[in-house]
Amino acid sequence: MTEARPGDAAASRAQSQVGDTVESSAGSAPERAGTAPTVVVAGGGTAGHIEPAMALADAVMRLRPDARVVALGTERGLENQLVPARGYPLELVPPVPMPRKPTLDLLKLPVKVADSVRRTRQVLDRLGADVVVGFGGYVSLPAYLAARGRVPIVVHEANQHAGLANKVGARFAARVVAAVPGTSLPGAEVVGIPLRRSITALDRAGLRAEARKHFGLDPDAPALLVFGGSQGARSINAAVSQAAKYFADAGVSVLHAHGPKNTLAVQEFPGRPPYVPVPYLERMDLAYAAADLVLCRSGAMTVAEVSAVGLPAVFVPLPHGNGEQALNARPAVDAGAALLVPDEELTSDKVAELVVPLVTDASRLSRMSAAAVGLGHREADEVLAAIVLEQAEKRRR
User: Fold this and answer.
1) What distance in Å separates the CA atoms of residue 244 and residue 218, rounded to the nearest whole number?
2) Is 322 annotated to bind ligand?
3) Is 38 annotated as a binding residue?
4) What does the buried/exposed string (b/e) look like for 122-148 if buried means 16 or more CB atoms within 10 Å of the residue's CB?
5) How large a percentage of the chain has pLDDT more than 70?
6) Does 196 show up as a binding residue in the annotation?
7) Coil vs helix vs strand at 310
């Protein structure tokens, strides 16, 4: 699922519609028992927003073990599973989803924004927030507006084309950072995307045997990893599963995450390397270690992780939105680390023609892997954490 991306005019309206409700002079900081900073991260909704927020949280705790990190989320977001699993407290606030088209919901937006901002501000005051870090998405907009003039804001943008929330937040943020050059937010510093240390420090070769045993894959056969984001992708599911016989005939194992809301029936071929469908991959580190090649969407987080671990890729950008996933994939494609297949061209025949020969070509995969390793910013988590803690210290002075 992609975030709605209205233009700059919409960003101006969203900021002004709440009027005096979000205007507040900066008061004195609430009394605190100690000197430890409180960092509030806002990046709920999808894994692409949540995972960098959690990677930042981990980095903050490495740099300042006495710090407190709290995540903001909504009651329906994936953060309800991912954030507690990572050991961080989660505070729920009302989301502010932007209507994609002019509807009656648009007329209700000012009231919804004002209510969400009021309730989010109460959370920030109760926590004694020293800095708010937003990664875009529905929960970031009320967080930015609630923090405005009261708590320093750091905005992180993962895509070249920023979403509405980050366009608004960047207008009064203390620091604006981006994953890639050329983002639409003026003055953004490029730091990369914060990634989990289990990814940036992954020893794919050393974990291969354990990873393949974990998923029930053939220990020696070439292996393809397939996923379409946290919710899966029907076009990818259909095209790859319908090519099961081609993989079996070529002696290729497949690990396919089809999404928790989808089902996948795959023909079995006894005596051949297995095709293993799973709803969701909780151990992405082991999934990457098990694979020789990945076929997946090209969300910013996915591209960053795949490049960081040196995994050759076939990217199939999401066909909706404004083309940001194709832009995300372009550096890896230009470097020779990945191929790009438009979603409408992905068929079982295309998989047989392109993917099967690639996953069985060890020499070409080795060259692609070497090209991938040079991409990205592997220390982005601690670079961003240092920026965030600096703003928190300024707030406390």
Assistant:
1) 15
2) no
3) no
4) ebbeebbbbbbbbbbbbbbbbbbbbbb
5) 87
6) yes
7) coil
Question: Does the annotation flag 302 for ligand binding?
Answer: no
Q: Is this prediction's pTM over 0.70? A: yes
Which residue in 194, 198, 200 sits closest to 156, CA to CA? 194
Q: With a cut of 70, say whether residue 226 has pLDDT above it.
A: yes
Q: Quickly state the pLDDT bin for 100 (edges 50, 70, 90).
A: low
Return the pLDDT at 12: 47
Cα(325)–Cα(333) distance, integer angstroms:
12
Is 262 marked as binding a ligand?
no
DSSP 35-54: S--EEEEE--SSHHHHHHHH
The residue-averaged pLDDT of 190-201 equals 94
Q: Determine the Cα–Cα distance for residues 294 and 310; give it in Å rounded to an integer.
A: 11
- In the 8-state DSSP scheme, what is residue 356? H
Query: Can you give the pLDDT at residue 163?
Result: 86
H helix or E strand, kind and range, residue 213:
helix 204-215
Long-range contacts of 280-287 (CB under 8 A, 24+ apart): 280/230, 281/227, 281/257, 283/214, 284/199, 285/196, 285/198, 285/199, 285/202, 285/207, 286/207, 286/210, 286/211, 286/214, 286/215, 287/211, 287/215, 287/225, 287/227, 287/255, 287/257
pLDDT-based confidence at residue 156 (cuts at 50, 70, 90): very high
Express each pLDDT in 106-150 by its tens digit.
556 777 888 999 999 999 999 999 999 999 988 999 999 999 999
Average pLDDT over residues 268-275: 95
Name all domains of the chain by residue range, CATH numbers in brackets: 38-195+378-396 (3.40.50.2000), 198-372 (3.40.50.2000)
Q: Name the least confident of 130-134, 206-210, 250-254, 256-260.
A: 256-260
Nearest Cα residue to 116 out of 99, 135, 91 = 91
Q: Classify residue 196 by its DSSP letter.
A: -
- DSSP assignment of 72-118: EE-TTSTHHHHHHHTT--EEE----PPPSSSSHHHHHHHHHHHHHHH
Q: Is 47 marked as a binding-site residue?
A: yes
The number of CA neighbours under 13 Å toward the Cβ of 27 is 10
Tell whether 46 is in a known binding site: yes
Average pLDDT over residues 299-305: 92
55: phi then psi, degrees, rounded to nearest 5:
-65, -40
